[in-house]
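Researcher: Next entry in the queue.
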Amino acid sequence: MNNWNNEYMAEYHRQEILDEAEQIRLGKLVVSSQVYRPHLLNRTMFSFANWMISTGKKLRKRYEVPSVDCSHSRTGSFAH
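Model: Structure for this entry, 80 residues:
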């Protein structure tokens, strides 16, 4: 029987797993500590998107056909 080798390999794999978990923890720590600073293109696209949204809402209000309330028909009929 070669129990010593099995125990050695199990301990080696356990240590590898612990080392990998520590690397993941450190990687998450580094990512969470970094401050997000968008580049010029990102800032420009964000501003452009906000401008398009605000302009689109104003244009929709200006040119949208008002909806008709069909619940009050002149004939009193319930058929649509």
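Model: Residues 1-31 form one domain.
Researcher: Noted, moving on.
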